[in-house]
Amino acid sequence: MYRTNHCGELNIQDIGKEVSLCGWIQRSRDLGGMTFVDLRDRYGITQLVFNMETHPALCEEIRGLGREFVIQVQGKVAERSNKNSKMSTGDIEINAEKVEILNPSKTPPFTIEDQSDGGEELRMKYRYLDLRRNILRKNIELRYLVSRETRNYLDAQKFMEIETPVLIKSTPEGARDFVVPSRMNPGEFYALPQSPQTFKQLLMVAGFDKYFQLVKCFRDEDLRADRQPEFTQIDCEMSFVTQEDILKTFEGLAVHLFKNVKKIEMGSFPRMSYADAMKYYGNDKPDIRFDMKFVDLKEVSKGKSFKVFDDAESVLAICVKGCAEYTRKQLDELTDFVKRPQLGASGMVYARVNMDGSIKSSVDKFYDENDLKIWAEKCDAQNGDLILILAGKDSTCRKALSELRLEMGMRLGLRKSDVFAPLWVTDFPLLEFNEEGNRWHAMHHPFTSPNIEDIPLLDSNPGAVRAIAYDMVINGVEVGGGSIRIHNKELQKKMLKILGFSDEDASAQFGFLMNAFEYGAPPHGGLALGFDRLCALIGEADNIRDFIAFPKNNSGRDMMIDAPSSISLEQLKELGIELKKNE
Amino acid sequence: MYRTNHCGELNIQDIGKEVSLCGWIQRSRDLGGMTFVDLRDRYGITQLVFNMETHPALCEEIRGLGREFVIQVQGKVAERSNKNSKMSTGDIEINAEKVEILNPSKTPPFTIEDQSDGGEELRMKYRYLDLRRNILRKNIELRYLVSRETRNYLDAQKFMEIETPVLIKSTPEGARDFVVPSRMNPGEFYALPQSPQTFKQLLMVAGFDKYFQLVKCFRDEDLRADRQPEFTQIDCEMSFVTQEDILKTFEGLAVHLFKNVKKIEMGSFPRMSYADAMKYYGNDKPDIRFDMKFVDLKEVSKGKSFKVFDDAESVLAICVKGCAEYTRKQLDELTDFVKRPQLGASGMVYARVNMDGSIKSSVDKFYDENDLKIWAEKCDAQNGDLILILAGKDSTCRKALSELRLEMGMRLGLRKSDVFAPLWVTDFPLLEFNEEGNRWHAMHHPFTSPNIEDIPLLDSNPGAVRAIAYDMVINGVEVGGGSIRIHNKELQKKMLKILGFSDEDASAQFGFLMNAFEYGAPPHGGLALGFDRLCALIGEADNIRDFIAFPKNNSGRDMMIDAPSSISLEQLKELGIELKKNE
To answer: Has this prediction a pTM greater than 0.80?
Structure first.
């Protein structure tokens, strides 16, 4: 036995006990007659005392050991004269009597502290050292806690976790599929799942009623900062349910998680239609930690010879509380912000509602004080507020104003990471038109049920058909989404046809699912939550990599093990493939 | 809302309630004035009654519906006149008042009953229907229960579940790796893990202390009946532990699982060295539900001019209780059994200890009654017992006798699937010599620590070095195994050298791990249990496919979705690979 206790548990009750501890040397302070060592393990830190007078050799030995050495120490628990109330073990220390070096350590390439001096590349290469840092260890612990509480909640709700296969079938639609050559079936490939969608639906057909899985999914795509080629989902599906049943169940999950992991009581989730989200926030995942809704000034601004507004499809404003004093420079910054190519607004108009009630705008040439008063009223602007206005093509205008709103929320400190504002966004459109491909795409996925009332519109006006689809949004982050699924073969066939599948393709790719629908498929629906993202959100952080034990970088590369890498010609040969020659 | 209750919960307390149920029509019995329908869901079966007198139209309608139709029914709970105490809902029935057909069903291609009339191929193609059968549903439920109780136990023991990556690095050693071409890194490949071995060791280096994961692993090899290309492990690792700590912890897990899933109290596990297992059972995973140990007759049989025994490296016997009356035909069968090419014994000798105490053998020409008495004594054979003897090369002889022992155990009904005999097998050899490759192989894996006492033998007599490695064996099934790992860079390097790695290869493949050992790696060890196999064992079945929701067949093919399959030239091109032309 290496240890009697770990480094986070000894306290005043244990005084006098002979103990044995193991851990890493976090730091060591030599005070002449005494040397103090902080011994660290996953559970905490315990102070060791080496006494030069009583144990001179031991004391000498310990002085020779550097940070991150792994030692085993035996000694007696004693009360500290100098207590540290911030530590669970802060009342005691160990008078060391014997030490064994279990493994020495070279000097780490960066400091194992909350604020490390290592750059991200270096830390990813030495991930096993980076993970020793408190902040990362706590993230991984939080991730485990979230997974555990997710399972506890869903188990109590009678969900069963069922594993679906990782080696599945590639589909031509799956342009972002990772594929896996099969040695036993030369020339053939498996694909890694982008989600277990069809399998969970088949589990419903099989009668499992309530399924969940914390499951790895895979997507081979250019990685944005917050994406990983492999990611984890909380994947769920239920039978004999309406949208209402699903929203209640998973609102319950979120409430349970925040309560049990964060000790935060969340109220019930407000709901907002997709149409309203776009109308008031220009965004299908609004951050409702703060208000600052869009106000439509089109009607009240027209006919005053201001061509920019008159010609614009939309004239939209937000009212920023207490910012009437913004300087010219600040306003110019905001104008530059919305004019960036990725937002593409052509300019920004402002109106200051001064403390004396007077209003001053950048378009005073066209609008007199009375006109501006009407704007202020529509915007519910008080003295001291700043009105920011964008005009132009509706979609551009909403997108840019949405970003401007988030920027202002940030500047005003309205987006606190420890405040959580959840929301269901519902009634998404079923389809969106892809100009490039000149065809309809499924906004959620091809298995999503249209709103039953809207089915007649599938032929006449597909763009107007609402889906029974919903997203869970927290603090402007899309935590997950789902839908009620189609469970009727004919409707599924029609849907695939609208999406441009030939009967042949539809049958080759989804024949097994459509056939399954003919053998008593129950009505069903579900959702999937992005687990990595959810953990980062609960952990009040932005970077999901910090919540993954061994993440890949933005090129999809594991810096530590150096993967992907080349493989031998022999391996390629056995798999029946070869690398494409450069042409 | 589709339903007020599920089909497994209504009982005598609920009489008079208006309820709504959903499910599948399991069967329907038309008794003229009444039609009885068994409505099935995951939770149970509830009897519906349709009354021709009071609801003639409804009754007509229900008579038109076939098996596996999905319906929603409303009605009132009533007490049954004809109670069925075998069913949880057997005291009540529902007087149906309204029915809605949620989805019709074609006639399934096989019957959804415990004994189905469908062959395995057909049932795998329609897996979603096969999974509706009670027996498979219960297997999947049991699998979930085992996973849940595994997590509960390990959580209580302070283990944390941490996800390790699925897209890792291929190694030349990994001849059975599945590989995944990377679109973003053309010409480079990820590999799917055969186990998370190096990652869990790095988690120990990172200080996580106790790690577990229920994790998918992958192996691209010819599939035996009980192997799958993707399989699930309960993977664990601990720091600052001896073998004893690990055995206790996971013996505790097994005890917990059998208690909570099977309501079986398992005692503590006996332990047996690898050497004893081979000596007494000819097998490193002995089935100790029954005794029938090997008895060495070499010494007592020599010098009697029976050349077969005199020339043999080993002469080994088992004593089969109460089988002295075996007929000539039965004995010939057993002889044929051991002479099969895969066992390769050259023949079998027997000796019957008759009820009158006389002994009759097939080698009476060479051994007189006194000689045979000595055999019987050594074998502890009583009147009525049968002694079976094999002779020849030691390894062949042990292997064949081990199989014969299992066969006799089977014939005598000593291998009951509801009796569980667990065992730790310890002290495995570290290395085994591979004649073909003319080099040493790691018996467990290259990261296994040699027994510290035996380290000096690494150079002089590698074959004699014992590993600190152990297997959990239950009923002759290797449920899992593990080892204490090497945590010292130099020892790891030496080990890899013995295994034939050049310094360069060792560093290219395992450099990250050996480097990690230089930064304060704690002593650590762990084990992995085969989850699919464990579930089958607990479920008292042989076929692991029956415990996997969507298994692959023996060619690694998913019959339902038809994977693997060919992919498009466009996909291949994007991945920078092409199919090898036939030469």
So the answer is: yes
